């Protein structure tokens, strides 16, 4: 059933009434039906432009992980490539070549043993890339089970309940049982100790998250790999890891080079990242890489010939824009390793500095400080009972800032937090302005006698921190 909105009946009966534009006569345009006749392009532009002024300012959106700023040259290249369809590799061979170059650059960045043999592809985002990684895990498990003459009808995937919502979708769409490790106490993500507890012979893999959307923390991929090594030595179960590096895979290589989380760990079979998050591209691109040909079953790969060469493709989407691929290559070329390091270090500096200053205000306690990915979460201190984090979020929204407030999943639904995502373009100066407005909000909230808002008023912009539906292990 289509989504219903308050006042739908009234709104559907009202046409748009347009003031004279560029000396033309006033018009009436239906809101929810095609107009009977065409109009001047400048008039159509003005109508849409005026309505879009009601949107929020993207640069003040501290909920989203997605890039909201790009250099003018990157935007120019994207405009020049707006009509290019990424699937038409024979028609746009150079765009396909740039995609291949990006894959090889990422393979080297993530320490593939033989980067030239690493297989990867661009996607519409990290969600599609994650699903491709999960699908490859499932197919490898099925092939191994069939070769052993064993059933393949009950695959499961183990992960922390803090994973992004795309993994719940993957499990539903591709008929895999999701086994979520719940949060306990002050443990808010998967750990080496908890990673193996739900694994069995039907486990297709373990998902480790490099940069949790709930609090910005890294999961200990190396520790999880070691725990799975131990499990194999004790039981014979050989369970691979997929690293969901939607954010962290473009942070850790530059800021935490000694951290082992990537293809340096033999148990890591595949990695996904989001080019339009800390890859610094405007929305519309992700990346999935496998350590070698063995990690991606050949029967999942389609081959496209272009310029006499072979381009293996593996994707859920068919037609999609090539402009973001070009923008990704532009960023790689323009910034290089040192440029990315400087950008990401600035983001981390802004995040950790802002986190310290928010903690110093008094009412708040940090869960994380932005020292992993430049994202941090904070809650109200014990004893603050006259306002809620949802009141704070609503107050900041009145100033144009989108700072999400949400509750954690089982077993910490008692914990309500605020989260700030620092991206390229959110400067120290903007952090100062946010802090100024936060002080103003707190001064007003201190006059309340009780909270005015709760989780029901939080809105729908948790951006990855949505509640999952835990299921009993062993049951679909």
List the helices and strands in order.
HEEHHHEHEHEHEHEHEEEEHEEHEEH
Beginning-to-end CA distance, first to last residue: 26 Å
Helix % is 25-40%
- Which term fits the overall shape? globular
Strand order of the largest sheet: 3-9-8-7-6-4-5
CATH C-level of the largest domain: Alpha Beta
CATH-assigned homologous superfamily of the largest domain: Type I PLP-dependent aspartate aminotransferase-like (Major domain)
Helix-and-strand structural type: alpha/beta
Radius of gyration equals 24 Å
Number of helices: 12
DSSP strand count? 15
Strand content: 15-25%
CATH architecture of the largest domain: 3-Layer(aba) Sandwich
CATH topology term of the largest domain: Aspartate Aminotransferase, domain 2
Low-confidence segments, ≥5 residues, pLDDT <50? 472-476
Q: How many structural domains does the protein architecture include?
A: 3
Average pLDDT metric: 90
Largest sheet: 7 strands, mixed
